[in-house]
Amino acid sequence: MLEGWPGEALLIKLWDTLADKGIGSLLRPGHERRLGTAKNDVKRDEILIIAQAEKQAEDIKAGRATYIDGKLKHLPPPDSSETESDKSPNPTAMDYIGRAQDIQISETLRKEANVARAIMIAEDALAEDDTPPTDDNIDDDWLFSWQEGAASVSAEELQQLWGKILAGELKEPGTFSFRTLMFMKGLSQKEASLISKIAQFTISNWIASPFIGVMKPKGIDFRDLIHLQEIGILSGVTSSKTAMTFPSSIDDKYFSHIRAHDKVLFLHHDDPSKIADIDACYVTLVGQEVFKLGNFGIDVEYLTLVAKYFIGVGFDVEMADAIGVGNNRFSINSTIKITSDS
Q1: pLDDT digits (tens, 9 = 90+) for 182-223
Q2: How far apart are CA 106 and CA 327, in angstroms?
Q3: What are the backbone angles phi and psi of residue 244, rounded to the nearest 5°?
Q4: Distances from the Cα of 215 to the Cαs of 33, 202, 273, 295, in angstroms?
Q5: Percent of residues in the chain assigned helix, strand, coil, to nearest 5
Q6: Residues 6+ apart with CB under 8 A from 190
Q7: Strand pairing of 263-269 and 276-283?
Q8: 178 touches 22 (CB < 8 A)
Q9: Which residues contact 174 (CB under 8 A, 6 or more apart)?
Q10: pTM of structure
């Protein structure tokens, strides 16, 4: 076995988990060989296997090939010189059955290729992660539900999401709920793009309602927010005002912080009884899990408006870069004081 892979232990657990459940059949023949093969060689072979399966699926669906006795047989192209009288008589029932079987095989190959591509994405996500595997295993029903969802998408953007879901669940089983898997199965590529846009305006698990207008020039209008509420990512978009509150975290004066992806706001006031609040709509539990799939940064213009809002109600506000160090902890860098003129 090769030594020195940062994510070697996680990858071995991934391969063992999938092989044990019979998932990723296109890649399984190379499972044992993986442990003694360089990563780049493994990935090259995986790409070739998937490409071959996709080509076979396409040829079968188009009638250029068929399976006979478990083997793929390529069919000759139609003879353009063939006259109507030369052609075969009307298709028989067996012809229809054979064609139906070919279509089923084509669809199976397509789904297996989709699953294999998602698995490759999971491998890439885990390959450089030196986090030790947990003793917990992925729930069997969850894994089969994941397989069904990953099989159904061919768009690269959606395959990326399914691959990241598998990687995240392998690292920490329970990270993604069955409800989130069901949500992902109905997600369109356009909706995935919209979710990526709105993520830049989420502060922890909420969005500042007074500054929704700043999103419109950046591709998100109020109808988009309503749609995100309808599909279960946001709540409170159309309801009456709901305040997000931030009490002080210390006793002798007011101090609180608000994390926003790669930034953090620090709020200060001399009165420890003062409470910061702002009208907000919320990210649902499903939305919070979906946002874990991306590495988002906060829109700084929007966050600056939020900071100025708190300045306007009497707080001193600083903004800093937030550098994650795991377990929801972070270090800070480049702290600046925000003013009403900033």
Answers
A1: 999 999 999 999 999 999 999 989 999 999 999 999 999 999
A2: 44
A3: -95, 125
A4: 50, 11, 33, 19
A5: 50, 20, 35
A6: none
A7: unpaired
A8: no
A9: 136
A10: 0.79
